[in-house]
Design brief:
This protein has about 325 residues and is an alpha/beta fold. The protein has one domain (about 5-220, about 275-325): Alpha-Beta Barrel (TIM Barrel). The protein has 12 helices and 10 strands. Strands 1-2-3-5-6-7-8-10 form an 8-stranded parallel barrel, surrounded by 8 helices. The longest helix has 20 residues, at about 225-245. To bacterial alkanal monooxygenase alpha and beta chains. It holds the Pfam family Bac_luciferase.
Length: about 325
């Protein structure tokens, strides 16, 4: 068995407000901790009324304070939106409050539209160009060797928080391999280049200090029956359909069938985007996830469950733990 973790997108369901959504995140994190999950991560998104994780560092601290052992982190911080020093200070503060429990995942995408990215940081495009150097700046700020530097991260210095490189294409695979960092791929929404990215990372890995570490994030929806899992998944499919139609809204309640909701071209596109999804009973998901882990020789697996009901999400979290402990 490899470590298994959870990515919380803090998606707001129709009928819930943001306060309830974040309270549900606490309950989800506590269930994940009880079920043996290794990490609980949040992703940075902006200007989306259905996603409540824009202040990612704040949420990490909140969840860490409501749990006791599970690692909490970012999947990820979109670094071009921020100053590397500020991120080092934020995460250094978190690591000081919750020693040995904080992870930092870094990505180069904006996590939003270009207008909002410019509002977050007018130098966003320049920061994208300097992304590799800014990752190394964070490494420097978090190192104990930075004590004599002119610019220091206090808190942060000496915490050596584990840094993961995140990717949804092949770009960050090159950077992760050259810096000897663990690599997590966003196959839960962009699986097309996953195989190529993992191959690049494995073949170009350059660190003798740490072995390469590959993690894939996938969608998991488990229910007592296949029919119920497919019904629950209609909320998930409609969310992706809204993305391609540019009609983003709150996560909708499940429906009995997607027939008549999407046309054949839309269905094909959604199914391509959600190819790395494991939907069914514990027995079917166990067989499929085992093949997936072995095919890509994964070091870890991360799941996300974008479903409407908190009860259905908690069921999936516990059931997936049982799956992983039976492999």
């Amino acid at each position: 068995m490899i470590p298994y973790s959870f990515l919380d997108l803090a998606i707001v369901s129709e009928g819930n407000d943001i306060s309830q959504t974040l309270e549900n995140s606490v309950k989800t994190a506590q269930k994940a901790e009880q079920s043996g999950y290794t990490r609980y991560w949040f992703a940075e998104h902006h200007n989306m009324k259905s996603v409540a994780s824009s202040a990612t560092s704040v949420l990490i601290g909140h969840i860490a304070g409501k749990t006791t052992t599970i690692r909490v982190g970012s999947g990820g911080i979109m670094l071009p939106n921020h100053s590397p020093l500020v991120i080092a200070e934020h995460f250094g503060t978190l690591a000081s409050l919750y020693p040995g429990r904080i992870d930092m995942g870094l990505g180069r995408a904006p996590g939003t539209d270009q207008v909002t990215a410019a509002a977050l940081n007018p130098n966003f495009l320049e920061n994208v160009h300097h992304f590799p150097e800014n990752v190394q700046k964070i490494q420097q700020y978090l190192s104990g060797k930075n004590a004599n530097a002119q610019v220091r991260a206090i808190p942060g210095e000496g915490t050596d928080i584990p840094i993961w490189m995140l990717g949804s294409s092949t770009d960050s695979a090159y950077l992760a391999s050259s810096l000897g960092l663990p690599y997590a791929f966003a196959s839960h929404f962009a699986p097309a280049q996953m195989t190529a990215a993992f191959d690049i990372y494995s073949h170009n890995y350059r660190s003798d200090e740490h072995p390469p570490k590959k993690m894939a994030c996938v969608n998991v929806i488990i229910a007592p029956t296949t029919e119920e899992a497919e019904r629950i998944a209609t909320s998930f499919y409609r969310m992706f359909l809204g993305m391609i139609r540019n009609q983003r809204g709150y996560l909708q309640a499940p429906i009995d069938t997607m027939k008549g909701i999407w046309d054949p071209a839309e269905e094909a596109y959604v199914r391509q985007m959600t190819h790395c999804s494991f939907i069914g009973t514990k027995e079917t998901v166990k067989a499929e996830i085992s093949r997936f882990i072995n095919r890509f020789n994964l070091s870890e697996i991360m799941t996300t469950s974008p479903v409407y009901s908190l009860e259905d999400k908690l069921y999936s979290i516990e059931a997936f733990s049982e799956v992983m402990n039976s492999i």
